[in-house]
Amino acid sequence: MQPGTGFWSVLRSVIASLFGVQSHKNYERDFTKGSFISFAVIGVILVATFVILLFSFVKWYVTAAG
């Protein structure tokens, strides 16, 4: 990977994109230096984790509410 596209940089960029607060400078860096597969894999993992956590929370809440 090139400088600025390490794991933590990609993770920060994906999280910022999920929240819609990615800066234009980072957006350009990601598209010029980054690898699509690294962004796609981390994005899928984060979205899947979010869905699983949301499902678990709702299941817990419904069970606790009785």
Can you tell me about this structure?
With 66 residues, this protein is an all-alpha fold. 80% of the residues lie in helices and 0% in strands. The chain has helices spanning 7-19, 24-33, 36-65. α1 crosses α3. The longest helix is centred in the last third of the chain and has 30 residues, at 36-65. It is elongated. The termini are far apart. The mean pLDDT is 90.
Please specify the SSE layout and strand pairing.
Elements: H1 7-19, H2 24-33, H3 36-65
Q: In one word, what is the shape?
A: elongated
Which sequence of SSEs, written as H and E, runs from N to C? HHH
Rg: 16 Å
The percent range for helix content is: over 70%
The SS-based structural class is mainly alpha
- What is the β-strand count? 0
Q: In angstroms, what separates the terminal alpha carbons? A: 50 Å
Low-confidence stretches: none
- What is the residue-averaged pLDDT? 90
Major sheet, described briefly? none
- Summed up, the helix count is 3
Percentage beta strand: under 5%
